[in-house]
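pasting input
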Amino acid sequence: MIHMANSIIKKLSDFKDAQPSLETAMGSAIGSYDANSLQIYDISYHSELNRLCVVGSYTNTDISQTAPFVGFYNASLGSSYAAGTWVISDLSSQNDSTADNVLEAAGLFGLVEIPSSSLKWTYGWVAVGHVPDNSYTAGQDDFLSPLIVEIDSTGTTTVLSSEQSGTFKPSGWTLTQSGGASVTRPYMLCGVVYDDQNDAIVTFGSLKAASPSIISYAFIVEMTGSTSQPTYAFSTNYGRSSGVGHEYPAFFRSASLQTIDPSGAIVSNRTVVMLVGYSEDLAGNPTLEGRAVIAFYQPHFSNAWGSAAPRLAWLDRGINNGDDFYDQQGLAADNKPKDLSLCKRITVDGDDVYVVGGLMSGGGVFGYVFKGLLFGDSNIINQVGINTTVNVDDLRNISSDLNGTLPTGFTTGNRSTLWDMVGIADRKTKVYSVGLIYYGRNAPLSPDAWVVADGTRESTIFSVSRGFGYYTAEAYDTMITGSLDAGNVRMKMAVYDDATYTSLLFTQAAFRSSITTASLYEARISTGHRALAWFEYLLYDGVDSLIARKLNEMGVRVTIANVEWYKQDILKQGLDVSTDFFNEWATLQVSQNEERERVAEQFGKKRPPKRQTRTDIFDDYADYESKTEAVEQFPDYDPNKDGDPFKDDVALTQEVEKTQKAVDDLRRIEDVVEKETTDESEYDGASDVSDYGEN
Amino acid sequence: MAIRRQFREFIIADNGSETVADLESFIDKPQSIFTSEYGNANMTQSQKLLDNQFIVIQALGSTPGLFATDDNWCPRGYMNITVETTTYYTNPDNRPQDGLSGTGSPYPIQTNRLRSYNSFPRVYLQGGTTFDITYFMASSFIGTPDTFSDDSYTQTMTG
């Protein structure tokens, strides 16, 4: 089947390792930081603020507990990460240091962007998580309490809700539908989403019953502003862990929301949150094995409940009921999800789908894609006790695709799960990460063995085409050595687009520093496609170019052999061009010049130029007039003039004789000429005396 | 003065060094492998031969492949020679043709990718003429992605 998935990501390049600078910054900012203990649970690149933020936990040596932290990178990305640029917020003061035997790591696990347009929140982020708390029930020393903080545009954190700080203590949170107190106690917060139409957040996690405390519920928290007290809702019927022997709490782990009416218009009174998580409900689950839950929730701030029950409907209640989703889809027991770790709505790549992912009961990655959700006729979720019909335009089970697309040496097993998926806007494709999950735990502080049970490469990056038609693991092959740390199981991602290049930010965590420290990388993503063009030619220059042109004019193919042949031919020499052509060419030039000299000399081109006229035989006659004039002007010629003292009589006599001789010559020439022109004997053929000359 | 065998290898790749916008605009028309500023075509002077230069083109070749699939992308590229204002490969009406396909004349030559020609038709470029070698890529680096669709589903959810 051809999907034309040209855009699928197959290559990661230009890696920048941000973890060392964060590690250095943590050590500088937190005196009780246990080196290399940081774990990153969520990452966000705020596209409006152009800043990176990470949240997670570290080990605090003073209190010997894991503690939450926020890392804010106060510079634009694109260059190497500098330790001095990280703004670190240590939230260990929110821990109850007297708590011990805690089964879940403290930390911040969810991070959501708050836009500058928000009127009720600080521009930046809201992060949620949980910390150890020993204040709930005496003797229950493994208790946790939620923590909500906001992070402004400079990285400064403000605690919005904490049992330790006293700000909106979770123990004082009220029920959303009634505003009244509850005997239940908020326990964990695992994630958070922001509703920009209502400027409110929905966060979710786990709730403990008052007694016995082993009963827990997956619960949803609404918060309509940073100065508003959180309220919460849950179902006492479903999404719960109950009964003796049930070790793990029920909780919602991931969620995503939409704010559209049936026509597709974005509105503020049709918010629906899709939530996924874990439960161990004794009803219908006698094996005590957990079952994943999927629910839809309509917030009170979107569509008021009045004083009635929450607007909450269960697609699957995790109780093996034949009316629920997994059975309606005909999934075999091993293919039903034991836990769900991802619910994400992806719209940036030109499509609009929900991706749900988790761990199958029989091992391997569970995955489903939902597109076009309509609740009833008007996108209203009915309140608890009243059923709601959901219509899905397009639905697909992608579990087999996820498990069938693996790099060499990578296997999926009884802990494998889908951790994250991000859409790449300009390439219209998606990147997703597969790792390991400890079902029933959000951040397990359990033995290390579960992490390494499935091999050494616990999490990595894959790609899928926008329409989920084609999958590839080729990106894994381009990842630099060490960018996927053995032991890191949870892998979250964010997209950084600087308007020129698109980069992927990804981080891995192991929950426990005893396994490994977290990684944090930035890498450019691309298809890796390459096109080559080759142009090969022979360049003749100098004399060779003239020969080449001559050969072309002659209609002879221009080849090296033909050029050399012609060269040899015109030089009448047998050159061996296969040997030292250049030396022979130089020798040839010398001999050619010598030959040219010889020929030139032979043809008279090198003799001195002729004199124009021989005048020496007429010298006396030539200056006759001037000499005559000189004689006439001679002083002695005129008796009245004094004589020239330098011309004596001898000289004068000689001058006169010379002049006289010249005159005589002239007369003799004239006589000869006259005689030749008048002597007819030359023409009559008769012999006369003149024919014999004067002798 | 000499006779020299020379070559130029043009490379354009979606490997993180090209923007998506450049990759998309590259496929619009034949692009010079010397001066187009795509890939490594970063020469700043036109290819005008000196009077004492004469070029005999020995070979042209490009990445082979005519039909891109999910597993095997190919550029579907064509090369052409431009001398002054004319092109070597033309249609019967003398309009420029795509040129010599990478499948007909592959580069690099491999055992399963051989030239369809024993010898390349020799093209002579006289001194003083301006020439260019163009590469036209018909496939897209990004292309037209698929859109998700499947069967619909309806369920009554318990409240």
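fyi Chain B touches chain A through 71 residues (CB under 8 Å).
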